Amino acid sequence: MERAEKRSELIKLIIVYAIELLIMIGLEVGFNLLDKTNVNPPMIVKSIIIYGLLLIPVIVYSKKKGDSFLEVCKFKKIKVSTVLLTVLLTIVSCPMYIFANLVSQLFVPNIMAQSMNQILDGSAALALVATTLFAPICEEMICRGFFQNRLKNVLPFMASAIVSGIMFGALHLNLNQFCYAFVLGVIFAYVNRASGTVITSMIMHFLINFGNMLMLMAFSGIAATQGGDLGQMAETARANKQVMLSGISVYGFLAIIAFFLCRLIIKAIAKREQTIDIEQDEQLAVETVEL
C-alpha cells in the first residue's frame, strides 16, 4: 500500500473511530439522564443497545470497502495447545493490568466497584452474560477485529497495537478503565498477531471479565452483609494511601516479570500456529519506520 493510500486509510479509520466515540458519549449521556428519572435499564438491555449501535459504523465501512466484516476480524480455528497457552497468558498477564488499575486509583475511583449496584440491578445472571459474553465478543470484533487489523496495514505493528489500545481504553470514557483497558488492548493485539485470529483475545477478554465479575459480586455480597456497599468499601481502601502505594509497588514488580513471561508465551503461540516470528516482525516494523 502506497504512503498516500495508507494516510488516506488512516484518516478514514480515525473518522470511523470518532463516530464510535460519539455514539458512546451520546449513550452515556442518555443513560445518565434516564438514571436521573429513576429509569435504569438492565445491563443486558444496555449492552444490546451499545454494541448494536457500535457495530453499525464498522460494518458499514467494511461493506463500502467491499470487505467482509467477519473476514476482516479473522476468525479461524486454533490448536488446543494454543487455547491452553492463551489461558496461561491470561493468568500471567494479571499483574500488568492490575498495576495499571491501581495506579489510576491514585487519581480516580474504581469505576466497576462504584457501578456494581447498577450492574446487578435486575438479573445478576443476565448482567454476567452482558459483561462476560457480549462485551468480549463485540469489543474484540470492533477494537481488534476491525481497527487493529486495519491499522496494522497502515502503521508499524507496535504503533498499531498502541493506537488500538488507546482506542479501546478511550471507549470506556473514564480514566480508571482507560488505564487497564489500554494495557489489555496492547496485549490482545500481540496475542492475536501470534495466533492469527481474534479468537485468542476473545478468550482472554472473556476469562478476565468473568473472573473480575465473580470477584466483584462476591465482594459486593460481603459488603452487603456488613451494611455497606462495594463502592464504599473500595473508596475506604483507596483512601489508605500507604496500602495503595504498597500494592502498586508489589504489582509493579510483578508486572515487570509478567511482561517477559507474556512475551515468551506469545512467542510459543506464534510457533504453534506457525505465524510470523515475533522478533522478525518487529524488525520489519523498525525497517518500515526507517524507510
From TrEMBL:
Family matches, as InterPro entries: CAAX_protease, Rce1/LyrA-like_dom
Annotated ranges, domain CAAX prenyl protease 2/Lysostaphin resistance protein A-like: 124-210
Membrane found in the keyword field: yes
GO molecular function: endopeptidase activity
GO biological process: CAAX-box protein maturation
Source organism superkingdom: Bacteria
Keywords for this protein: Membrane, Transmembrane, Transmembrane helix
One Pfam family of this chain: Rce1-like
Transmembrane regions: 12-31, 43-62, 83-103, 123-142, 154-171, 177-194, 206-224, 244-266
Name this polypeptide is given: CAAX prenyl protease 2/Lysostaphin resistance protein A-like domain-containing protein
Lineage of origin: Bacteria, Bacillati, Bacillota, Clostridia, Lachnospirales
